[in-house]
Structure formats: C-alpha cells, structure tokens
C-alpha cells in the first residue's frame, strides 16, 4: 500500500525528549529473528535503539534525531519479511505491568528477609535446649532479625495490608485479613519477646509467610499479563487501519481510534470495512456474514448503510463515517455487551469461595484458642502466642498457591495448544460447562469461502488459475489462490468488476466472471445451484474451468462435534444466517438442536432460557452479532478470525483453521479444575492436622515453618501436572501454535459430501 | 563469639548487594523478555565478522 501512514498519533514522547514507538511484529518465528531485525535496523540514520521483545513478539524503537524516518523502518522490515502492526499500550495493560513489577519487588524483599532471618533462626533453634547458645547471643540474633523483618514486612506486606484494609473498611472479611493480622501480630509479639529476652521469636514465620503468598500472587499476575500481552498483539494484528481520504484527495493510513465521525474512508476490494457509515461513492457487494450471520452477499451503492466487519467484494467504496453515538449496530451491540458482562462479573472464583469460608474460620480458631488457654489459667502472653501460632500455621500459603499455580501451568499448556485465555477464571467456568452453543458462520464454517470442486480440475489449469488469482484482491480469487499457497503471482492486469488477465505461454489467460471468459453457457448449466455457491470462471486458450466457491465446514468440524457429544455435552447451533443454510450444516454435523435467522438479542434470549434451565453454556462464536451472546454465556471461546470486539468479549480465543482446540480446552479445563480442587483439599487436610497441634501449643517454630513450606511445595508440584496436556486425541496441527493465518491446511469437506 | 559481630553484617551486606542488583535489573527492564534473553546468549553479534 502506498498511502502514507499517520504515525504521529502513535509515537510517545518521553521526558528526556526521546521518541518511542511500539509495534507488534508479524512473521517472527524463531530466535534468530531477534538478531536479524535488530541488526537490520541498526544502521538506520537517527535510530538510537531497536529492541525486540521475543516473549511478547514486539519491537520497541527509540530515537531523538528528527532525521529518523519511521516509514523507512517499516519498509525495511517489510522487505525482510516482517510486518509491523503499531499499537497503543492499553491503560489496563500498562497498569498490569506496573503491578507485576511491584509484586516482584515485594517478593524479592520478602525473600531476602526470610532467608537471612531463617539463617539466624536456625542458629537459635540448633543452639537451644541444652545447646551452647547463650542468652546474650540469642537476644542479638533476635534483635538482628527484628531489624531485618520490620522494614521488610512494612514494604513487602503492602499488597496484603492494602487489600485487607479495603475489605475491613467495606465491612467484609477476605483472605488478606487473617494474613495481615497474623503477620502484624507475629511481628508485634516477636518484638515484645525480643525485648523481654524470651526464648522464641516469630520473625522467620512472618517473613516466610509473606514470601510464599507473594509468590502465589505474582504467579497469578504473570499468567494474566502474558495472555493479555498476546491478546493485545493479536488485536493489533487484526486492527484494521483505516485509509482516510483528505478533501484534497490525499490518502493517509490511520489507526481506527483516530478516525472521527464525518471522515471519509476508502475501502478497496478485498478489504474489511473498518467503520460503520454510509457509502458516499462507489458500488460493490458486501459479505456481511461476520456482522449479521447472513452469508448471501448484499449489493450496496451510494447512500447504503454499511457496518464494520463486512468484507468488500467488487468495487472500491468511499464511506462517510457515522456519528459514533448514533443508533448504529455497533452501539446496540456494545450496550448488550455491557449488560451481559456486568451480569457475569458476579461469578465467584473457586479460591474466593473457599477463602470466604476460610477466613472467618481461621479467626474463630485463633480466638477460641486464646480464650481456651486463658480459661485454663494460662497468662495472656502465652494464650496470645498460641493464637498466633494458629494464625501462622493456618496461613493460607498452600491455599494461596493452590489455584494460581494450576492456572499458570494450565494456561501455558493451552498456549502451546494454540488457545489463549482472556480471563483468569475462564478455566473454572470452562470446566463447569455442560452445554455448547455454536455459531455457524465463521465458527463451524471456515471464515473465508473456498473452492469445493478442486478435485475435478486439471492440475495445470489450477496452477495457472492460482497464479492469476494471486494478482487479484477479490475475495473469491483468494479462495482460488489458496489452492496453490506457494505459487508466485503473475503480472496481470485487472479489469474492474470482471476479472484478471495475463499472458501465459503466449496465450492470454483469464480469470473472473463467466462472461469475462465466455463461459456463460456452462455457468448457466450449473444453473440450479443454490445461492451460496459463487462461480469463478477460467479460460486459457481452449482450457476452461469453473470454480465453485462457497462456505465450507471447518476441516475437523464433524469429528469435533462427535467428540464433544461423546463427552456428554449437549450441542446447539444458533445462527443469524438463513434457516435453510443452518439446517444443512446442522444435518451435516448431526446436531438436532438448531435455530437460524436469529438477531443478536434473540441469541441472548435463548442463552438466558438455557441458563434458566440450570445449564452452564459454553458459547463458541465469532462475529459482531455474537459478541453479546459470547458475553452473556457462562463462558465463551472465539476463533482468532473473529473481529476485535468479539475477542474482547470472549474468555478464550483459539488460533488456526481447526475446531479441535475447543475439545483440548475443555479437557484441560476439567483436568485443571480437578487439580485445583485436589490442591485445595491438600491444604485443607494439612490444616486439619496442623491446626489441632497448634491449638494444643505443641508446635515449635521450626516444625511450623517446615510444615508451612512443605505444604506449599506439595501443591506447587501437584500443579505442574496440569502442564501435561491431554494428548490422547491431540492432532499434530494443534501441537504448535500456527500463525494466525487466514488460510488453513488440508482439504475441507464439502457440506453435501458430509451428509 | 566476637566473630559473629563481623560475620552477620558481612552476610547481610552480601545479601543486600544481591537484592540491590535484582531490584536494579528489575527496574531496568531485564525481566520483561525472559524468552528472548535465553536466546540472545547464543547470538554472535559481538563477534567481528571481517578480519
């Protein structure tokens, strides 16, 4: 594309005058690319710094010099085979990065304190009870411990203190309240003990507690941050840059956020519409299947209302962008979306549900212990010590690690299987699903139309046709080009609205409309075909061919549905497409429950009805029209071809051309939930044994610390088992995350063939 | 036992040094890209090619 890019809006200016620009890099496949990109850019004039972030697949550029030309950098990378997709770091992601750094800092400090204090404590424990440590040395050790522990706890305990304080102020109890109480009481008591030259202090327990809890919290955060970063990249990859026309006819490419109502944007054939609006000039056919679910193309001309996400087939359109606060389809959908998202945020996570029960019980146990010992005649001091022991031994170390550790491992396994999680509690909700509702268009069927009669066409004809098709941007031509993915494009001239032509071996080859190739009669013989099939004609001398192009099922849709049924899921299809089209798909997949011609609100209504029956629905869908349904279902998955709004609404997205990741995800989610429960059970069992001992006052600090670490290590090791993805039915394509490509592999089954 | 008066501060100083180094590396963004760092070690970009 030759239009200049409107970079200014995406460059951030640092305090020191440096300009910074971040972009997601498409095409980075291996570690060698890091060096290639960085060195490829190194000698650009004016550039200070080019650094690739391999984990996030991003590139950061920094410069001060006005000579630096960002467009040149883009161009150079494009020639090397990489595409840059500029994006703005969302405020939420920036905050996420900050928080995870903060947690890591706290963790480092708590870990440092815990280790050093433990060193001193071990000295005290070994020396006590007939050992050779004298009281003065013990006091010295306790004093040094206090000097380390107090500032460290003051800093590293902040995440818990803040949250506990907020909860108390709101009149609630959360997990952080007993943690904070335990830590603060233990510290206060230890200081008192140190001052009165007592034998025991509990600085080690307090700091150990903090470091284990911070570890759990950091893991929890790291998982969400990673998936969010990848999701943001994918959004950037798919972010449609709009081509804005200025009044004098100049074209600038601008990110969508910078397009205002009233602007004129240009959409070429083969591009998706980036905005809602009214056609100003031009005429074309639009595939609105992503928006409405309807697969038949709609002819539009000046004055027609068009929606973002539609695919432009034939002609270039200029569109006047509509007011964003009008009654556009997007606004309607967003309103529904908001309502649905609010409804779902009431879901309570497994760990939270447990801690809701757990926190009051811990306080009660500690209180009862203290009262019991005072009633038995113990001093206030001794009673308090035992109570602190209870608070520490019940410390939800294992509990705090149990769920996040499994989440991290499971999300890693899912990532390798090509599935990205969007929300932290998605795993738990996925595991609960018992009913699966599929959208048809773009979900059960492949998002782009395909050639379905490829087997009947001569190989040589196909070669030439595919190379010709490569030269065209028409969506139907793309389907033909896909038959020979590695063919080079021919030097062709495009005849607008008719087709492309090029000289091959001295004879003109043509690809396009039937009349363009003189095949009207043959095309008419195909006559009785249904509305969903489009024909692409080809002529090269005497060799002719007609390509049948239509929506096809995803290559493994039949097997996937059968497997889901075998696992006992109820399957249903809800589609916005015409009833006949849905009926055919449902029959091919042997799904009894289906309905077609639904509007977004009707889909939501159906999901609500299912919920009222007590079902937990997993919604699998893409498209704008599905966004509210995705958000209102119990849990949702979206294929990566979906438009951005859907990605934001779905709990998980999967990559690639196959539907199998849905099965993998469900299997892994169920396994993970089982592991989470196992872990929670383990920590409860640990407490059942440890708490009575602590209440009886039999525990020495050494045993308490060892038991605490032991339980934490146990649940972490158990969580690692989630990493072994269920491979029984895994397919080779799902093993490695395929690049988000529009073109899949293998031959898709034709709808009729599957009947 | 007077040796403790030297050893304890020494141990703490070493630990603090390590902590400071970690916090510095965290602040300078060295934990942003752990996957890339693993691969960068293997790159020969500091070896001069034409001698």
Automatic annotation (TrEMBL), chain A:
Q: What PROSITE patterns would the database entry show?
A: ATPASE_E1_E2 (PS00154), HMA_1 (PS01047), HMA_2 (PS50846)
Give the GO cellular component terms, alphabetically. plasma membrane
**Location in or out of the cell:** Cell membrane; Membrane
- Write one Gene Ontology MF term: ATP hydrolysis activity
Q: Which organism is it from?
A: Methylocystis parvus
Q: Which SUPFAM superfamilies match?
A: Calcium ATPase, transduction domain A, Calcium ATPase, transmembrane domain M, HAD-like, HMA, heavy metal-associated domain
Q: Please provide the record's keywords in A-Z order.
A: ATP-binding, Cell membrane, Hydrolase, Membrane, Metal-binding, Nucleotide-binding, Translocase, Transmembrane, Transmembrane helix
InterPro entries documented for this protein: ATPase_P-typ_cyto_dom_N, ATPase_P-typ_P_site, ATPase_P-typ_TM_dom_sf, ATPase_P-typ_transduc_dom_A_sf, ATPase_P-type_domA, HAD-like_sf, HAD_sf, Heavy-metal-associated_CS
Query: Which protein family is named in the record?
Result: Belongs to the cation transport ATPase (P-type) (TC 3.A.3) family. Type IB subfamily.
Domain (HMA) ranges:
19-85
**Disordered: where is this region?**
726-755
Q: Where are the transmembrane segments?
A: 102-125, 140-161, 173-195, 201-219, 357-378, 384-406, 680-696
Predominant location: membrane
**Name of a matching Pfam family:** HMA
- Enzyme class label: hydrolase
Q: What is this protein called?
A: Cadmium-translocating P-type ATPase
Q: What EC number(s) are associated with this protein in UniProt?
A: 3.6.3.3
Q: Which GO terms describe its biological process?
A: metal ion transport
TrEMBL record, chain B:
Q: Which InterPro entries match?
A: Cyt_oxidase_maturation_cbb3
According to UniProt, the name of this protein is Cbb3-type cytochrome oxidase assembly protein CcoS
């Amino acid at each position: 594309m030759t239009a200049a890019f409107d970079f200014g809006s995406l460059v951030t200016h640092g305090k020191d005058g440096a300009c910074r620009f971040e972009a997601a890099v498409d095409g980075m496949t291996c570690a060698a690319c890091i060096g290639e990109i960085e060195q490829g850019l190194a000698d650009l004039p004016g550039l200070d710094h080019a650094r690739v972030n391999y984990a996030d697949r991003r590139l950061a550029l920094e410069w001060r010099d006005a000579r630096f030309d960002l467009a040149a950098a883009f161009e150079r990378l494009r020639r090397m085979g990489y595409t840059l997709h500029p994006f703005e770091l969302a405020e939420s992601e920036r905050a996420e990065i900050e928080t995870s750094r903060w947690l890591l800092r706290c963790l480092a400090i708590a870990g440092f304190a815990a280790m050093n204090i433990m060193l001193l404590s071990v000295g005290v424990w070994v020396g006590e009870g007939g050992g050779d440590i004298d009281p003065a040395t013990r006091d010295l050790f306790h004093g040094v411990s206090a000097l380390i522990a107090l500032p460290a706890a003051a800093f590293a305990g902040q995440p818990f203190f803040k949250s506990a304080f907020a909860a108390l102020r709101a009149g609630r109890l959360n997990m952080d309240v007993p943690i904070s109480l335990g830590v603060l009481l233990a510290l206060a008591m230890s200081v008192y003990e140190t001052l009165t030259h007592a034998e025991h202090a509990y600085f080690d327990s307090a700091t150990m507690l903090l470091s284990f809890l911070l570890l759990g919290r950091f893991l929890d955060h790291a998982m969400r941050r990673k998936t969010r970063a990848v999701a943001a990249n994918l959004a950037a990859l798919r972010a449609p840059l709009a081509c804005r026309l200025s009044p004098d006819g100049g074209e600038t490419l601008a990110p969508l956020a910078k397009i205002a109502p009233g602007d004129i944007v240009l959409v070429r054939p083969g591009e998706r519409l980036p905005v809602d609006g009214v056609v100003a000039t031009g005429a074309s056919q639009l595939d609105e299947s992503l928006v409405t679910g309807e697969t038949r193309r709609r002819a539009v001309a000046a004055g027609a209302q068009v929606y973002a996400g539609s695919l432009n087939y034939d002609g270039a359109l200029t569109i006047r962008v509509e007011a964003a606060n009008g009654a556009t389809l997007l606004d309607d959908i967003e309103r529904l979306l908001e309502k649905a998202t609010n409804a779902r945020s009431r879901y309570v996570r497994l760990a939270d549900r447990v801690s809701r029960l757990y926190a009051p019980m811990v306080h009660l146990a500690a209180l009862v212990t203290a009262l019991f010992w005072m009633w038995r005649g113990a001093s206030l001091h001794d009673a308090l010590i035992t109570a602190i022991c209870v608070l520490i031994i019940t410390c939800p170390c294992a509990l705090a690690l149990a769920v996040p550790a499994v989440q991290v491992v499971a999300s890693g396994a899912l990532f390798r299987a090509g599935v990205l999680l969007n929300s932290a509690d998605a795993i738990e909700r996925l595991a609960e699903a018992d009913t699966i509702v599929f959208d048809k268009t773009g979900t059960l069927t492949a998002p782009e139309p395909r050639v379905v009669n490829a087997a009947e066409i001569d190989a040589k004809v196909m070669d030439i046709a595919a190379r010709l098709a490569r030269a065209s941007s028409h969506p139907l031509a793309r389907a033909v080009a896909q038959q020979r993915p590695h063919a080079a494009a021919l030097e062709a001239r495009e005849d607008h609205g008719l087709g492309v032509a090029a000289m091959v071996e001295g004879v003109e080859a043509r690809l396009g409309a039937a009349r363009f190739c003189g095949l009207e009669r043959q095309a008419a013989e195909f006559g009785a075909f249904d509305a969903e099939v489009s024909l692409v004609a080809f002529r090269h001398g005497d060799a002719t061919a007609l390509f049948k192009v239509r929506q096809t099922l995803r290559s493994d849709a039949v097997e996937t549905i059968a497997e889901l049924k075998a696992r006992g899921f109820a399957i249903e299809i809800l589609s916005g497409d015409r009833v006949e089209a849905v009926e055919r798909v449902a029959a091919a997949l042997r799904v009894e429950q289906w309905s077609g011609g639904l509007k977004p609100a009707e889909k939501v209504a159906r999901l609500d009805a299912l919920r009222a029956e007590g079902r937990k629905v997993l919604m699998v869908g893409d498209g704008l029209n599905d966004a509210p349904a995705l958000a209102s279902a119990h849990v949702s998955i979206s294929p990566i071809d979906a438009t951005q709004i859907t990605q934001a609404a779905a709990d998980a997205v999967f990559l690639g051309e196959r539907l199998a990741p849905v099965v993998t995800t469900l299997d892994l989610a169920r396994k993970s939930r089982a592991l989470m429960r196992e872990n929670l059970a383990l920590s409860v069992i640990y407490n059942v044994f440890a708490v009575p001992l602590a209440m009886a006052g039999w525990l020495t600090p050494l045993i308490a610390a060892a038991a605490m670490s032991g339980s934490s290590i146990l649940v972490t090791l158990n969580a690692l088992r989630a990493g072994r993805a269920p491979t029984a039915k895994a397919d080779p394509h799902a093993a490695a995350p395929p690049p988000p490509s529009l073109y899949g592999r293998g031959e898709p089954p034709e709808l009729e063939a599957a009947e | 036992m007077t040796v403790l008066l030297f050893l304890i501060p020494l141990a703490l100083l070493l630990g603090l040094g390590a902590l400071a180094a970690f916090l510095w590396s965290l602040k300078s963004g060295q934990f942003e890209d752990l996957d890339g760092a693993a691969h960068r070690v293997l790159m020969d970009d500091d070896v001069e090619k034409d001698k």
